[in-house]
Design goal:
By secondary structure, the protein is mainly α. It is built from eleven helices and no strands.
Length: 210
């Protein structure tokens, strides 16, 4: 795919959704961090149901530490892998309190040290909470980029690196959200909705649906 096509793809996505946002519900960078940690192998809808109960009573690192791991588990028990996630959230809260005055660090290096926080989670927090032009590649974005030809790669990291190189700077701030929403609602895994796709004329997928 050439640069003109890529630019037009993002231009169309921006025109359709000028101010894209995450579908995870949060009020602070810390709450976003926890929500993203909980979202691994879970839906945003499921995470939001749990955090609507959790955050009003424990929406800060100090409050979650005071709540304790066992009570935290009860609040997130509807989410997959909740035992491991509760353990990681508690450990992360302890580090935030002890080393960062209860605040979420604003560097990738500091974020990736936190238990349960990998590169993708760090990228989401840097982008969504702090406005950094990072692009977190999840299964939706990986699929969209490979299917359309926007940024082909055999691994998540390869796709991320390709996107960093080929996405025009003016679109990098919102590229993550445009691509994830497009993958979630239009360029779906089992059957992409090509007739409703605003970038279908630019997409290089050979098996478009009718």
């Amino acid at each position: 795919m050439n640069s003109e096509k890529r630019t037009e793809i993002f231009r169309r996505l921006r025109e359709a959704n000028p101010h894209p946002k995450t579908e995870l519900e949060y009020a602070t960078p810390f709450q976003l961090l926890v929500a993203v940690m909980l979202s691994a192998q879970a839906t945003d809808v499921g995470v939001n149901k749990a955090t609507r109960r959790l955050f009003p009573i424990a929406g800060t690192p100090h409050a979650i530490l005071a709540l304790g791991e066992e009570k935290l588990k009860r609040h997130i028990a509807t989410i997959g892998l909740f035992n491991t996630k509760a353990k990681n959230v508690i450990a992360t809260c302890a580090i935030l309190v002890e080393q960062h005055a209860g605040e979420v660090p604003r560097t990738r290096e500091a974020l990736e040290v936190l238990p349960g926080v990998g590169r993708k989670t760090a990228n989401v927090v840097l982008n969504t909470a702090f406005g950094e032009p990072t692009i977190a590649v999840d299964t939706h974005i990986f699929r969209v980029c490979n299917r359309t030809g926007l940024a082909s790669g055999k691994t998540v990291r390869a796709v991320e690196d390709k996107l960093e190189n080929v996405v025009p700077d003016e679109f990098k701030r919102d590229a993550h959200h445009w691509l994830i929403l497009h993958g979630r609602y239009v360029c779906r895994a089992r059957k992409p909705d090509c007739p409703a796709c605003i970038i279908r004329a630019l997409c290089e997928y050979r098996h478009k649906t009718r």
